[in-house]
Amino acid sequence: MFHNIFGWFSNDLAIDLGTATTLVYVKGKGIVCNEPSVVVMRKDDKKPVAVGAEAKRMIGKTPANITAIRPMKDGVIADFDATGEMLKYFIKKAHNRRSFISPRIIIGVPSGITQVEQRAVKDAAQVSGAREVYLIGEPMAAAIGVGLSVGEPSGNMIVDVGGGTTDIAVISLDGVVCSKAVRVGGDKMDEAIIAYIKRRYNLMIGDITAEQIKINIGSAYNTNGNEQRVMEIKGRDLISGIPKTMTINETEIREALSETVNIILDTIKAILENTPPELAADIVDKGIVLAGGGALLRGLDLLIREETGLPVIIADDPLTAVVRGVGKMLDELDMLKRVAISQ
After folding, report:
1. Are 165 and 219 part of one and the same domain?
2. Following DSSP, what letter does each residue of 290-307 receive, concatenated?
3. Most exposed: 23, 36, 117, 155, by fewest CB within 10 Å?
């Protein structure tokens, strides 16, 4: 009986602590929070001014006394204090300010995370009021989230292209057989677009503009023949120093993104080369599953299919795959114990 009462009050959370976006899943309610991983803080007393979506609107527009921080870099904590503030804000928001029971929290982390980085994530969660903290590798979480049968003795290959990292893994029998995380993802794509436009047109654009370009006309593969998507962009001319507007097209952006996309491709091939033959045979049948925000890059699935000859499936709602997988763990604690990263 007591256990049931505790279940009603249960405010256990699952968090996908991403470089670009943080998602929070509450037991029994689903995803309650999906906001950018950004904190705006005062420089003098380190007090947060804004967190999440509100903070993202301030990037590149802050005066000298406040600063916009992205506390996660390449999938791991770069600014400990800001991450603690961010988690506190998201936990509070998920519970509608009601936090009389300290929650149990499960957090999705990149597979290449070091012991020190794991400790930092756990500490940040505990500082923000967690009772128990479990960590689960993002590829495993994404595979569970998209509904792959990870417990079966057969190979499942997942490619999770996030903001800071791309995590690639082959999973069988609730375990990762081989995996690799490379620190390239959506952020590196944005940086590549900024660098390309600066080099080619002497035009300086901001992070938010670069992200819009990637979403609107970014692609990894020419999917529509001679038709070109174009976009008007605004930035600062580096020669005259004056703001100006110009038009760019899809082919240019594909060229700008090619290096980042090729790193992802090479990593997929490296994992396939290291996969045991029996599991490789399963992947030929089942194909490669793409998850994470990067899976939405136009033509990425076609390019991987062409380069590997394997079927490629984009997960339903790839952005929320990791948090849905971590959320399922809240109900299946025995499975959590099997797949959590043991400390």
Report:
1. no
2. EESGGGGSBTHHHHHHHH
3. 117
